[in-house]
Amino acid sequence: MPELAGEVLVAVIGLSGGFAVGSAFVALLIVLDLVPRLVQLTRAHRRSAVFESALLAGVIGFNCADLFDWRLSLGPGWLLVPAVFQGVFVGMLAAALTEVLNVIPIVAKRLRLGPYLLLLLLAMVLGKVAGSLADWFVFQRMD
């Protein structure tokens, strides 16, 4: 009987943690207006449910892949497809966060970088890409 109580306690703690992380993720998406902004940028107002469904399917799919330890025995070239989608999502999330916080205009104004704003954005994007590639191809291989 004490083993069952311990297992129930672990299940309750796990579910509570999952609800907390899921709620925080949804709150972040709502605060950043990521899906409505993406629908607005792509001018696909009639297909907003597709964006929401894709986001939900991605979350559920990758949670199941992590929980059940799914493995794909495909070549490294095939990993480029999900990597691009994950990179696009992280990039949009970072762009939405900076847009909400107005970080880039404030930095450009205070440092008098208005004429160099395009170069500043390009440097940020290339730095993110270079860091991601270094992590993926160099540091992940060390593990």
Which percent range describes the beta-strand content?
Answer: under 5%
Number of helices: 6
Total strand count, please? 0
How does the major sheet shape up? Answer: none
Q: Write the element-wise H/E pattern from the N-terminal end onward.
A: HHHHHH
The portion of residues assigned to helices is: over 70%
Mean pLDDT: 82
The unreliable regions are none
Shape: extended
Question: What integer value in Å does the Rg equal?
Answer: 20 Å
How far the N terminus sits from the C terminus, by CA atoms, comes to 40 Å
Look at the helices and sheets and give the structural class: mainly alpha
Question: In summary, what is this structure?
Answer:
The protein has 143 residues and is an all-alpha fold. Helix content is 81%, strand content 0%.
